[in-house]
Every structure is written in C-alpha cells, then in structure tokens.
Design a protein that fits this description.
This protein is an alpha/beta fold and about 130 residues long. It has a single domain, classed as Response regulator (Rossmann fold, 3-Layer(aba) Sandwich). It is about 45% helix and about 20% strand. Strand 1, helix 1 and strand 2 form a beta-alpha-beta unit. About 30% of the residues are buried.
Length: about 130
C-alpha cells in the first residue's frame, strides 16, 4: 500500500508541524512550499493523500485542488485542506473545489490524526 503523504504548505513552521504529525503516524512525507511544486510532486509521485494549505502564494490551494481533480491521474487522491480561516464560506469553497475534508488551523492534533487515518484507510470490502 502507498503510504506517502504530500504536504503542501508555504509557512515553514506550519509545514514542520504537519510533517511531524504525519511522520509520527508512520507515513512517509513529501513536502512542497507552493501549489506549483506540490502539483508537480502529486503528478510525479501519486501520493496516497494530499494535505493542502488553501492560502498559498501565486496559485491558491483552491485552484491546485481543482487541477488535481481535473486530471485522471490524481482525481482519486484524497485531499485534506488546511485553512486558518474559520469563515464557513472558505470551507465551502474548499469543498466545492474538491477537497474531501477541511480542517481549521491551529490543528486539533487528535482530530487531525483521526482524519488522517480515515482518509488513508482502505475502503471496506463490498
């Protein structure tokens, strides 16, 4: 099973925290500090999960998610959007762009870990 998680976050301290939390759960982490770099890694590496900050310079996380969803090679990869905005409109916009889940920063670490495991769990057998 693919255990790689791509973290796309432009703020080094936030990225370091998220990477540490993901690694503590036993997953391998790929890192990008921009949407453009993250898209390149997503298309090349096809991680099991993408953690996407929404407020990125140049290209927003919303646009990056739309591009991931539009490409058949990445459309199936779950996306966990991360935002500092507690405004419901921003969360709705992330879901409309194609994010599977949106969490607000600062992260509740227990909720983050639970969400990470849910998104990375194999679907139940039918």
């Amino acid at each position: 099973m693919n255990s790689r998680v791509l973290v796309i976050e432009d703020h080094p301290m936030d990225r370091e925290l998220v990477v540490e939390l993901v690694e503590q759960e036993g997953y391998q982490v790929l890192e990008a500090d921009s949407a453009e770099a993250g898209l390149g890694l997503a298309f090349a590496e096809r991680p099991a999960l993408i953690l996407m900050d929404l407020q990125l310079p140049r290209m927003s996380g919303y646009e990056a998610i739309r591009r991931l969803r539009a490409d058949p090679t990445t459309a199936h990869i779950p996306v966990l959007a991360l935002t500092a905005s507690v405004v419901g409109a921003g969360i709705r916009k992330a879901c409309d762009a194609g994010a599977d889940v949106c969490l607000v920063k600062p992260l509740d670490t227990a909720n983050f870990r639970d969400t990470l495991h849910k998104l990375l769990s194999p679907p139940p057998a039918e």
